[in-house]
Amino acid sequence: MNQPTNQPTNQPTNQPTNQPTNQPTNQPTNQPTNQPTNSLKTAHNTDFFGEKLTKLRQILPEIFSENTLDLEKLKTLLGDHPAQNERYGLNWAGKSTAYQALQRPTNNTLAPCPAESVDFDTTQNIFIESDNLEALKILQKSYAGKIKMIYIDPPYNTGNDFIYHDDFSQSKKEYEIATGDRNINGELLKSFKKNSKDNGHYHSNWLNMMLPRLHLAHTLLSDDGVIFISIDDNEQAQLKLLCDEIFGGENFIGSVPRITKKAGKTSGSIAKNHDYILIYAKSDLLEFVQELHTDKGYKYKDEHYDKRGAYKLSQTLDYSSIQYSQSLDYEINLNGKIFRAGNVSHSEMLERIERNPNSDFCWRWSKKLFDFGLENGFIVVKGDRIYTKTYENAKIEKCENDYIIIYESRTKVFSTLEMVDNSYSNDNSRKDIEKIFGAKLFEYTKPVSMLIKLLKIATNKNSITLDFFAGSATTAHAVMQLNSEDNGNRQFIMVQLPELTDEKSEAYKAGFKTISDISKERIRRAGAKIKAENPDKALDIGFKVFKLSDSNFKAWQIDDDDIAKQLEMYIDLLKDNANEMDIVYELLLKMGLKLTADIHFEKGVYWLTCENKSYAIVLNSLSQDEFHAIIAKKPAKTVVLDKAFLNDSEKSNVILQFKDAGLNFESI
Question: If DSSP codes are grouped into helix, strand and coil, which group holds residue 660?
């Protein structure tokens, strides 16, 4: 990425020295006006429900009255009758508060951290160090409807887990200090609270954490997307009802038990040896990819191997446990040797035909199908028995009154018993960690094999996968590993809070002060190992690191009565010491572009390329010729900071030029 040296941009160029008086109308006319209501400027205040209401207004304008949703009109339109007080659903103490946490806009953004990244300029993978609720809100505009698969492994709420405590109505740092999550020196202690079973709101607290995050996850999923959620008996029942509410009960795909360990701890009279994976689709457009049917029985080869693959001998052509049919009881003559079902004599066969029993020996194939199979190499004779071949990539199918050979790989559907194999247990996940770090840093992480299995059935080779409880970053590891196996280009987005590790833990002793430190280092080491094992493949083993940050733009203080002071502050909207690349990425997110957009700096302009479209961002003064050069390149959108203009006259002139060229332009 070609860019100038990062520098503070808080000193606007050519800014007049005139300061606004107490009368807003006396603001200097030679200074471009800065209105805090500009759409891009306030876009970092992600309004989850506001955007949904806008879409609803486009579809059903008649249910709005004076710009407000009229529920009675909606009920009338839908022919809805008054509901009874009793209704089925999941309710708990604090549910309305959880919705408030969902609806509350975020004033935060994501700041790039190239120093902690791998291949920052070229990779398509993302790692976000942040509270996941804030991160999910920030990602809404750029990634809504673009995530093919989400996997999360949230706290199981065992009574010893810490859960997130969501209240960002104060500034992020002020709130964390007030609640003890940050010390007076500003060092992060925690953004989560221990949820003991002695707590009267034990289940409620956990549900309050999950509700807003799952709502935001639902929006991010593509229409053919799917979410997998690991959980155990502590919250499985509650989570199922919550997901039915958010994703729709009709989109529940299944609950898959997973073996955790063969010898589990006993609870009462039973040993608990499994947890679950709940699976929900975004809609009925979801189609799982069926895996190739692996069977060690396919070990024989013949002259058709190149086209049909290996074959196995399924069973003899005759079979006694099927319903008897006279049409399937016939003699077969192969080179003068006669074969009869059940290896009986001619008279015994005739007697059987005459008797017509309910069940007895007969052939599995009709005479016509047998002749076709024999002619096309699907028959094998061994001694006195006839066997049929089952090929890996070919089978016989009936077509009208004849038979044809269909060439396709044999596949199998994903089974709810898929994860009861010990290869998906915690024992193997610990081995995965030990191979990477040489020590047991995590106790309950999931194995790479499990995530690869889910990725195989749920994604294509270009899908984006999100994990917003990243933990040890198993999901990222699995994405890179599967790409190396099938030459895929899958991308991942990981989100992990910089949660402090226990000072007594192996992770802390190994030098990892936070969980996110472990996550990032695992991706680095796993990627390097995969690349070393596949030196000739062009694999993306990198990741861009972003960290939660306050906005680079000043927020309008609605409780400040000193309007003159506010206007003076808004002469330059940028905060002091705002970093140029931080500003560019914040604007990128406000524009709804992906964090992986290509960025390069050329002649005073940051050029962004995303999904085959170009965009321009201007932070400092440009000449008229330089603005003309932007117009000549016809970007999909151009965003310019007001301080880049000498005065309102120049700003108006540039706006008209972009308008005449039919180009999208916005100033901040």
Answer: helix
Q: Of 412, 438, 455, which residue sits at a domain end? A: 412
CA distance 565 to 569: 6
C-alpha–C-alpha distance, residues 98 and 166, integer Å: 8
| Number of domains composing the chain | 3
Residues 421 and 275 occupy one common structural domain: yes
Q: Are residues 619 and 471 in the same domain?
A: no
Same structural domain, 128 and 223: yes
Q: What proportion of the chain, given as a percentage, has pLDDT over 90?
A: 58
CATH number at residue 542: 3.40.50.150
Average pLDDT over residues 247-275: 83
Helices (H), 232-366: 236-243, 305-308, 346-355
Q: Are 666 and 638 a contacting pair, CB within 8 Å?
A: yes
What mean pLDDT is reported for the chain?
84
**Residue 271 in tokens:** 């040993």
Do 544 and 460 reside in the same domain of the chain?
Answer: yes
Quote the pLDDT of residue 191: 47
Say if residue 329's pLDDT is above 50: yes
Torsion of CA 467, 473, 474, 480, to 10 degrees: 90
Q: Which two tokens stand for residue 148?
A: 């093919």
Q: Which of 418, 405, 502, 510 is nearest to 457 (CA)?
A: 418
* CA distance readout (Å), 96 to 99, 155, 168, 245, 267: 5, 22, 16, 14, 35
d(CA 165, CA 33): 40
Amino acid sitting at position 44: H
Segment 197-244, tens digit of pLDDT: 555 577 888 999 999 999 999 999 999 999 999 999 999 999 999 999
DSSP code of 273? -
Domain region containing 180: 95-290+414-548
SS3 label, residue 275: strand
What is the spatial distance between Cα 34 and Cα 18, in angstroms, rounded to a whole number?
15
Cβ atoms < 10 Å from Cβ of 193: 17
SS3 111: strand
Give the pair of three-digit tokens for residue 407. 């060439």
Q: Are residues 396 and 443 in the same domain?
A: no
Q: Tell me, yes or no, whether 543 lies in a domain.
A: yes
Number of C-beta neighbours around residue 489 at 10 A:
13
Domain end residue (candidates: 548, 580, 599): 548
Q: Does one domain contain both 570 and 654? A: yes
Residues 422, 510 within the same domain: yes
Tokens of 360: 């007895």
Task: Please tell me whether residues 355 and 504 are part of one structural domain.
Answer: no
**Residue 529 — pLDDT band, cuts 50, 70, 90?**
very high
Q: What is the largest CA-CA distance in the chain?
A: 118
SS3 198: coil
